[in-house]
Structure formats: structure tokens, C-alpha cells
Design goal:
By secondary structure, the chain is mainly alpha-helical. The chain has two domains: 82 residues, Arc Repressor Mutant, subunit A; 154 residues, Four Helix Bundle (Hemerythrin (Met), subunit A). It is 66% helix and 4% strand. A three-stranded antiparallel β-sheet has the order 1-3-2. Helix 5 packs parallel to helix 11 and helix 6 runs antiparallel to helix 7.
């Protein structure tokens, strides 16, 4: 088995037994998985270590067993497990979700920026994570603007990046979208999702497109990461609509 397959099994074991022991986690996974092999024990240890670094787990089980190999789910980790946000602690699952939400249409630079943002989050580099996620949102806005303009060449993309900031891009996208007849569900999402992408892009970009200083903590960064797949779904659905046959609004 690989770590991507083992990680969800580790999560399930922790949901059932939030105060446990490294060997107990490994033993439960071995008993529940038909494809488990002896060498997979090291991958289980790596998955648990990742969760320790991310703050989902902490050393110790109780007052008599305060150190590794005993572990317990932290208060933060418990919220993650209960609210289903543990996907943010599964890099492969997060990337797969972005691909699925966009039906594999997500641009490589957007995907890589989001993936790097998640890896930075895992290492406690919350400001770096938000800068990378902000970059991904900015690239999406540029892509939307190009599509609504009917532009395809790379020079157009550079022109938008150099002279238009997040607010200008969103204003332009809204104006161009107003000239089209969008499906009702997409039209109802338009203002809210564009505002979310604008706010995310503005975290690290000035209106001139330059860098902006920002502050970040774990909770706010996690929230942004969790919202991003839905924002991508909206953006790439709109892109698909824009690149299809043009439907003029009814006068």
C-alpha cells in the first residue's frame, strides 16, 4: 500500500480511538486492511508523524503516559475529524478534490500553487501558505478575464497581470459576465464567489499587482484552504461556460 491509501485508515482509527498508541494504530489498520503488508508499518508511522507536526495529534495518552509512542487527538484535531475538514491534512486527497471539482480542467500553475500552499500549511508556514493560495486565486481571475475577452494568447495574460489588480480583474469579469446569459445556478453564485476570489487574491496582491504584506494564523489559513475547492469549481464552471457557444442576454 502507499501512504495515500493508508492515511484515511489512520484517520478512521483516530476517530474510533482518539487516545491511543502508535502500535495500536498500526495493529488496527493491519487487521482491517486486506492489502496491508509488513513494510507498511513504516508508512503508518510517517502518516502519524505528519499529523503530529500539523497539530492534529500530540504526544501522550493520559497523565501516566505522557510521551511517545502514546498519542492523542488534540482539540484542534478533534474539530478537524468531526467537521470533515481532515481533507486539508491529506495532500493527495486535496489535490484529487481540486481535480474532481474542476473536472480535470484546473490549470497546472493554479494546482501547483494550491498544493504548495497546503504543504506550507502543514509545516506551520501560514503566511507563506496564504501567499501561495492568493497567487492561485489571482491566476484564476486572470484566466477568467481572458476567457470572457475571448483572449487566448499568453501576451494578454501578462498584460492583465501587469496592469490590473484583483479588484480591477473582478470588476472586469463581472462586467463581461453581465453580457452573457448564464445558467441560473452559476448566475446566483457569481457575485459571492467572485468576491471570495477577490478577497483571497487581495491578501498578497496590491491593486497594482505588486506584493502585499499580510498576517496569518492556522485557523484563518485552514478556512481559506477549505473554501478554495468550491471557488475552483465555480471558476472553472464559469470558464467552461465562457468558452462554449456565446448566448446573448434576452433584451
Amino acid at each position: 500500500m502507499d501512504k495515500a491509501l493508508l492515511r484515511p485508515l489512520v484517520f478512521d482509527a483516530l476517530r474510533r480511538t482518539p487516545q491511543t498508541h502508535l502500535h495500536a494504530i498500526e495493529n488496527e489498520i493491519r487487521q482491517r486492511s486486506s492489502g496491508y503488508e509488513r513494510g507498511d508499518a513504516l508508512l503508518v508511522q510517517e502518516a502519524v508523524w505528519d499529523l503530529l507536526l500539523q497539530g492534529v495529534l500530540a504526544p501522550g495518552k493520559n497523565s501516566l503516559n505522557l510521551h511517545l509512542p502514546f498519542v492523542h487527538v488534540t482539540e484542534y484535531g478533534q474539530r478537524c475529524l468531526e467537521e470533515g475538514v481532515i481533507v486539508a491534512h491529506d495532500p493527495d486527497g486535496y489535490v484529487a478534490r481540486l481535480r474532481a471539482e474542476t473536472r480535470e480542467a484546473i490549470a497546472l500553475d493554479v494546482l501547483e500553487s494550491a498544493q504548495d500552499a497546503l504543504l506550507a500549511f502543514h509545516r506551520g508556514l501560514f503566511r507563506v501558505s496564504l501567499v501561495l493560495l492568493s497567487r492561485a486565486a489571482f491566476e484564476i481571475l486572470i484566466e477568467l478575464r481572458r476567457a470572457l475577452d475571448g483572449e487566448r494568447d499568453g501576451a494578454s495574460a501578462h498584460r492583465h497581470r501587469d496592469v490590473v489588480g484583483p479588484t480591477g480583474l473582478v470588476h472586469s469579469v463581472r462586467g463581461a459576465a453581465a453580457q452573457r446569459t448564464l445558467p441560473r445556478a452559476l448566475a446566483e453564485e457569481l457575485d459571492g464567489r467572485l468576491s471570495e476570489l477577490e478577497a483571497l487574491a487581495r491578501l498578497a496582491h496590491t491593486e497594482a499587482g505588486g506584493p502585499r504584506n499580510l498576517t496569518a494564523d492556522r485557523e484563518s489559513t485552514l478556512g481559506r484552504l477549505l473554501l478554495f475547492p468550491a471557488q475552483c469549481r465555480f471558476a472553472y464552471t464559469l470558464l467552461e461556460e465562457c468558452r462554449g457557444p456565446r448566448r446573448e442576454p434576452v433584451s
